[in-house]
Cobalamin biosynthesis protein CobD (Streptomyces arboris), 326 residues
Amino acid sequence: MRADRVFAYGAVAGLIADAALGDPRRGHPVAGFGRAAARVESLLWRDDRGRGALHTLLCAGGAVGAAALAARAVRDRPALAVALTAATTWSVVGGTSLGREARAIGGALATGDLEVARERLPHLCGRDPHSLDGPQIARAVVESVAENTSDAVVGALVWGAIGGVPGLVGFRAVNTLDAMVGHKSPRHRRYGWASARLDDLAGWPGARLTAALAAVGGGRPSEAVRAWKADAGRHPSPNAGPVEAAFAGALGVRLGGTLAYAGRVEHRPVLNGESGREVRSSDIERAVRLSRRVSVLALGVCVVGRMAVGRVVAGRSSTGQGRGRA
C-alpha cells in the first residue's frame, strides 16, 4: 500500500478514535515523553542555550528516531502500518479533550459558579485564574481553544501528511518541549530558547492553515481575514497571532489584552478590537464548534494534499520505469 493511503486511512481512523474516546486514559505516550524529557532536563540543566539545544536534540530527535524505526518495521505490512498511524494520530491529537475542558468551564460560567471555572482553567491554559472575572475567563478559554486547535490537531495533521508517523511524533514532541521549557521564566529563558524557536518553525504551516480554515468555516470569512491581516503581526507569538486573530474575526469577539502568567503580567494587543465585542460564556461553545469544523477541514486538506503528492510521485516512478524498459 502506498504511503499516502496509509496516512489517509490511519489519520481518519485516529481522528475518529479521538472523537469517540478522547485522550488515552492511562499510559498516555505524550505524558510518558514529558516525564522522560523532565528527567533529561534534570541531568542537563544549566543556564545555557547550548545545553538547552542538546536537550531539544536528544528528546525530539530520540522521539522521531523511535517513530521512524517503528514505521520502518511495519512498512511492508499495510494493515499494521495503518494501525500504527491511527494509534499515533489518536495519541498526538487532542481535539476532543480540548473541547471537553472548554465546555466544562463554559458550563460553570453559565451557572455563575466562578470558583469552579477558576479551578478548571489551569487544566486548559497557564493563566493565573485567581484575579479573573467571568468575561476574562471566557476570553482565556476562547484564546486557548483557538491556539490549541492549531497545536493539538491541525499542526500534527500537517506534519503527519509530510512525514507520516515520524512527522506526527516529531511535531508533538517539539510542541510538548515548548510547553515544558519554552516559556520566559528565569529558569528557562536561555535553556528553553532552542525548543521555543523550533516550535515556532514547526508550528508555522499548521497555524496558517488553521487561520485560513477558521475563515472558511466560521461563517464570517471577510471579518476573519481582516482581523488576521490587521492584528496577527502585533501578537508576540508568530503562530498564535494568526490563529487567535482569525478566530476573533470569525466569532465576532475581541481577544487579547492584559493577562497574567504565574506572577508576571503581559499587555498584549487587542485582536479584532474595532468590530468585536467582549467574549461571553456562550462564545465558548461557538469556539469549540468552530474548532471541530476546522479540525475536520484540516483532515480533508491534509489527506487530499498527501494523496495528490503520492499520485504525482507514483506517476513519475512508473514513467521512469517505462523509459528504462524501452
In short: Residues 134-181 form the longest helix (48 residues). The chain has one domain: 3-325.
